[in-house]
Design goal:
- It is a single chain.
- The chain is 33% helix and 34% strand.
- It is of the alpha+beta class.
- The protein folds into 2 domains: 38 residues, no CATH class; 93 residues, 2-Layer Sandwich (GMP Synthetase, Chain A, domain 3), CATH 3.30.300.
- The strands form 2 sheets. A 3-stranded antiparallel sheet has the order 1-2-3, with no helix packed on it. It has a 3-stranded mixed sheet with strand order 4-5-6.
- The mean pLDDT is 95.
Length: 137
């Protein structure tokens, strides 16, 4: 079983830091969002995005599907009572020349074998699409 560890600390007023490997990630732990640093819900969506992009790279190599660039936009929807992320939607765009059939297989692998994507699919409704990146991007 793999194990992960993150250390975090916050100060009164809500400024906080998480320490992972050799990196410090600043985030907003204030009771009211200050609109500057990512809040916990946005960090969760960032993790989802990172998982998707990591698996774009992983399955590009494993399935021999070359790409030049990938980007993902993720939206999360939360209820207030109780405060829960109930839905995640995403659009994954890849700059690639692979045929549509292989693009769809790639997408299935990205979701099926992602730690965060699998975790979130058990907790919320997750839906998304994969498409080719517009040529003007």
């Amino acid at each position: 079983m793999r194990e992960y560890e993150v250390k975090a600390e916050g100060v009164a007023g809500g400024d906080a830091n998480a320490y992972v490997k050799q990196t410090t990630v600043r985030f907003d732990a204030a009771s009211e969002d200050k609109g500057i640093l990512p809040n916990p819900a946005e960090l969760l969506l960032m993790s989802f995005s990172a998982c998707v992009l990591k698996n774009v790279e992983r399955y590009s190599q494993r399935l021999h599907l070359p790409y030049r660039k990938a980007k993902v936009v993720v939206k999360g929807y939360r209820t207030d009572v109780p405060p829960v992320i109930t839905k995640i939607e995403y659009v994954l765009e890849i700059d690639t020349d692979v045929e549509d059939k292989k693009l769809n297989v790639w997408h299935k692998n990205i979701l099926k074998f992602g730690t965060i994507t699998n975790t979130m699919m058990r907790a919320a409704e997750v839906s998304g699409i994969i498409k080719r990146m517009d040529e003007d991007e």
